[in-house]
Design the sequence.
């Protein structure tokens, strides 16, 4: 997706703006940015692993195309199914990031390599490489269905999932919303209030005071 003409425009926006513009699928806030410093946008390469086993993550990394973002259902947060070895392999394949409904380890090394990772947390216990799951099939991640090829945007605020066919319309609305917000910020800096600009005064019910 990084080589897609819309990627740069999408990554210039915040996920909150994309959500407000119609990107309705929002993953659980329990999946947080653990490594990275920017909005990451990629084409979903979906993976389903059995608990405590990361064989299919290795398969997915080997099959990935530049611009993919791995979206993984690990099915158990007690195992570190991703670490420095997979990070190096992913960067060599030009994978743009990892969204993991599960846990990672080697976080200091991952951060040092500046690879964007969003996961539930950390776990020292390693994973086996024995059981066959799925790659590039529909999965659930962070409480949301994700289809192969969906466009995923992730930053510190959260993670949104957009069907491919909706991306251009969502992007147009999000860019318009961003322009309007820039105007509002300028007005606020000039001293106007959010009560004024958002027309909130009319929402207040004034109580009558009896003598």
Sequence:
């Amino acid at each position: 997706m990084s080589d897609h003409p819309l990627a740069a425009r999408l990554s210039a926006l915040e996920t909150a703006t994309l959500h407000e513009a119609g990107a309705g699928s929002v993953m659980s806030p329990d999946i947080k940015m653990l490594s990275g410093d920017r909005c990451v946008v990629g084409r979903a390469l979906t993976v389903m692993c059995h608990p405590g086993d990361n064989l299919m993550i290795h398969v997915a990394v080997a099959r990935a195309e530049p611009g993919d973002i791995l979206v993984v259902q690990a099915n158990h947060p007690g195992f570190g199914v991703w670490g420095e070895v997979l990070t190096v392999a992913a960067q060599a394949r030009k994978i743009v990031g990892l969204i993991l409904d599960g846990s990672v380890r080697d976080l200091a090394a991952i951060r040092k390599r500046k690879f964007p990772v969003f996961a539930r947390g950390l776990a020292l216990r390693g994973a086996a490489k024995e059981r066959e799951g799925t790659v590039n099939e529909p999965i659930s991640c962070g409480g949301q269905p994700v289809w192969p090829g969906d466009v995923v945007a992730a930053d510190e605020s959260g993670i949104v999932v957009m069907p491919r066919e909706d991306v251009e319309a969502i992007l147009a609305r999000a860019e318009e919303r961003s322009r309007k917000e820039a105007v509002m910020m300028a007005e606020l800096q000039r001293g106007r209030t959010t009560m004024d600009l958002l027309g909130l005064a009319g929402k207040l019910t004034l109580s009558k005071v009896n003598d």
Remarks:
- The radius of gyration is 20 Å.
- The longest strand covers residues 40-48.
- The CA atoms of residues 1 and 67 lie 4 Å apart.
